[in-house]
Write a structure and sequence with these properties.
Number of helices: 1
Largest sheet: 3 strands, antiparallel
Strand content: 35-45%
Mean pLDDT: 88
Radius of gyration: 13 Å
Order of helices and strands: EEEH
Low-confidence stretches: none
Strand order of the largest sheet: 1-2-3
Distance between the termini: 30 Å
Length: 49
């Protein structure tokens, strides 16, 4: 595998979108639990941060 597809270096992101809230989960290869971030629905600046 090349560096862009190596499961040991990849971070996986899941985004759940609704009008009321957005939930972003990020699984880092060096952590046991994913990071969970909650935003108000439509907060594109927060999402990019």
């Amino acid at each position: 595998m090349d560096q862009y597809h190596d499961a040991n270096t990849a971070a996986y992101v899941a985004i759940e979108l609704s009008n009321r809230s957005w939930i972003i989960g990020i699984a880092h290869p060096d952590r046991d639990k994913p990071s969970i971030h909650r935003l108000s629905g439509g907060d594109t600046k927060g999402l990019l941060r």
